[in-house]
Amino acid sequence: MESNNKLMGIVAAAVAVLVVVGGALWFMNRDMETEETESTNQSQQEDQVEQKTPGSIVTVASETPSLSTLVTALQAASLVETLQGTGPFTVFAPTNDAFAALPEGTLDSLLLPENVEQLKSILTYHVVSGKVLAQDLTDGQVITTVQGEKLTVSLMDGNAYLTDATGNKVMVETADVDADNGVVHVINSVLLPS
């Protein structure tokens, strides 16, 4: 009987130890899960903040390698500060290839200090006041640019095109690139005012 009581005492002690150790492990695991959840939630919130703040139009263009020539031109024309303003603005942004397709020497000439007004005129011809998304464009729509002249929209085969004052038809390659102060539409040619 005494050995039975001893055995029962040992078993009870072992069960008590297991319960205590198991409880401690459960609490530690729960704390780790809580920390992981908090860390995940914080990381998701940081991601959402990043997604909600893409930066100004100039920041978006600066972070897009294919728009580096446009950024250089904006700097030369002293338009960076304007396009970092509150806006909203819609910018039809020519790619580096679009600038390269201009007649030889044209871009170099435009970037000279004595041609800054002509450069400003061309660049502001690519800017529209307000945020115009691709879904807002309609076939035959006429858009007045910040420069003062107009662009005509045409929609064909699921693509949007802009016709400039010289009759040049330019395709929107990438639409609706969001910015804090508007939207950027990447285009495959430089728009030219009259």
Give an account of the 3D structure.
With 194 residues, the chain is of the alpha+beta class. It folds into two domains: 1-52; 57-187, FAS1 domain, CATH 2.30.180. The protein is 46% helix and 21% strand. The chain contains seven helices and seven strands. It has helices spanning 2-52, 57-62, 68-76, 80-83, 96-100, 106-110, 116-124, and strands spanning 89-94, 127-129, 142-144, 150-156, 159-163, 169-179, 182-187. The protein has a seven-stranded mixed sheet. It is globular, with a radius of gyration of 31 Å. The N and C termini lie far apart (112 Å). Residues 11-26 have low confidence and may be disordered.
Low-confidence stretches: 11-26
Q: Largest sheet, described in full? A: 7 strands, mixed
- Strand pairing plus helix content: what structural class? alpha+beta
Strand order of the largest sheet: 2-1-7-6-5-4-3
- Please write the string of helix (H) and strand (E) elements: HHHHEHHHEEEEEE
Shape: globular
